[in-house]
Design brief:
This protein is an alpha+beta fold. It contains 3 helices and 3 strands.
Length: about 80
């Protein structure tokens, strides 16, 4: 993912919800189709934080939050 993708709105803002303990993880994925974004988000969340209880994906929305998450490195394919 690049800053140019964010400016072109070529991303999806995602939230993974976990119940034990109750928490939300916000991140970006490289898909603009809602179904594909949800699948990619579930895969990324499982690999990173464990199996989520729920996944929500919003394609091409929340640009300010997307810029902040990009700066924090919370996106699919970020260097570890």
């Amino acid at each position: 993912m690049t800053p140019e993708q964010i400016e072109r709105r070529d991303y999806s803002f995602c939230v993974a919800t976990y119940k034990d303990p109750l928490r939300w993880e916000r991140f970006l994925v490289n898909a603009t189709n809602q179904r594909q974004a949800a699948e990619d988000a579930r895969t990324y969340a499982c690999e990173t934080w464990g199996d989520p209880d729920d996944i929500k994906a919003w394609p091409r929305n929340y640009i300010r939050e997307a810029r902040r998450l990009y700066a924090q490195g919370r996106y699919e394919g970020a260097p570890a």
